[in-house]
From TrEMBL:
Family annotation (InterPro entries): Gfo/Idh/MocA-like_OxRdtase_N, Gfo/Idh/MocA_oxidrdct_glycsds, GFO_IDH_MocA-like_dom, NAD(P)-bd_dom_sf
Organism of origin: Streptomyces pluripotens
UniProt protein name: Oxidoreductase
Domain GFO/IDH/MocA-like oxidoreductase: residue ranges: 155-280
Entry superkingdom: Bacteria
Any Pfam family the entry gives: GFO_IDH_MocA_C3
């Protein structure tokens, strides 16, 4: 694996590095935003509010960067190159198009800063592996914004599973959908790049499926995932990519189905885990466990993209890493091959 040659990075900082003074105490870490084209930018900014100071923004190369959230970033310096945005930063968030991840990752590596990157890491598995190798060689803390593993309702589901409350797992069904294509979310300047392969757009299954694959890997670490079949739905207007699809996986010995799409109304995040002692249903923030003795239900706040940002600032060890991103990319690529 090629790591590429680059000048020696500056002294590296831990995930949250702050200066302390006797009179003022710790200051909030300073975050640089690299790229503003990703639709989760607003979620990240809301999570940063009160926890970190956004010190600079580089909008990126995508021409629709007019989507910059001026309300939340009013008064923040907007610079013309990524390196300038990092001069006074303690950490970086990459919220660009997928196609810009490699170049922005290189700039962050040179600066020696911790970075949280939006998913996917790259447009395909080979690119993801190459970029992960370069960032790993640079020695910087790098994490992916896979937010489902930080949702309280799914963390509760994981505890019930690992505590044996479901018994031996028999089957799994996971779904992540929304009506974005129906509501013309991907037109104009909002997120049109996600339909463009030249900017790293892969379609609905890769966009949402990466979260579901990461969820399976997090729920049962070290359990192999094998793709058995895949069906992808074409975009209504045609073109590259898909509007969603379904994959049949072997999750260790357990059959698992994943379904994603941009044309489901109202959509949402759902998980069903069936076991020999009980069945667990998660729908948004609601959890229900049913056993032979009855059922109990819990309500949590729904999963939110900003959960990954909060974890990055407070508990980065639990974030999805580069190896997770590469593993997810391989599974998604196998789904695409199975559906071809």
């Amino acid at each position: 694996m090629s790591t590429g040659a680059s000048p020696a990075p500056r002294s590296r900082k831990p995930p949250v590095s702050v200066d302390r003074t006797p009179s003022e105490g710790p200051r909030r870490p300073r975050a640089a935003i690299l790229g503003t084209a990703h639709p989760h930018l607003g979620n990240h900014l809301r999570a940063l509010a009160g926890r970190a100071e956004v010190c600079a923004v580089y909008q990126g190369r995508y021409p629709a960067s007019a989507s910059l959230d001026h309300t939340r970033l009013r008064g923040v310096p907007v610079v013309t190159d990524a390196a300038s945005a990092l001069v006074h930063a303690d950490l970086a968030l990459i919220c660009s198009t997928t196609a810009e991840h490699s170049e922005l990752g290189a700039v962050v590596a040179q600066a020696g800063l911790p970075v949280l990157m939006e998913k996917p890491l790259a447009a395909d598995a080979a690119e993801a592996e190459e970029l992960a190798g370069r960032l790993t060689a640079a020695g910087i803390p790098a994490a992916m914004a896979m937010f489902l593993r930080h949702a309280p309702v799914l963390r509760r589901a994981r505890r019930l599973l690992t505590d044996g409350r479901l018994g031996r797992l028999i089957a799994c069904d996971a779904r992540f959908t929304h009506p974005g294509l129906l509501e013309r979310y991907f037109t104009g300047t909002t997120a049109a790049w996600m339909l463009s392969p030249s900017w790293g757009g892969r379609g609905a299954f890769a966009d949402l499926g990466v979260h579901l694959v990461d969820l399976l890997r997090w729920l049962r670490p070290d359990t192999p995932i094998r793709v058995r079949a895949g069906v992808l739905s074409p975009l209504p207007a045609g073109g590259a990519g898909d509007a969603g699809g379904t994959a049949l996986l072997e999750w260790g010995p357990v059959p698992a189905t994943l379904h994603t799409g941009w044309t489901s109304c109202p959509g949402g995040i759902r998980l069903v885990l069936e076991g020999t002692r009980g069945t667990l249903h998660v729908n948004g923030g609601h959890l229900v466990l049913t056993t032979a003795k009855g059922s109990f239900a819990e309500s949590h706040r729904p999963p939110a993209a900003g959960d990954a940002t909060t974890a990055f600032l407070s508990n980065p060890g639990e974030l999805a890493g580069l190896h997770d991103a590469v593993a997810c990319a391989r599974v998604l690529e196998a789904v695409g091959e199975a559906a071809a």
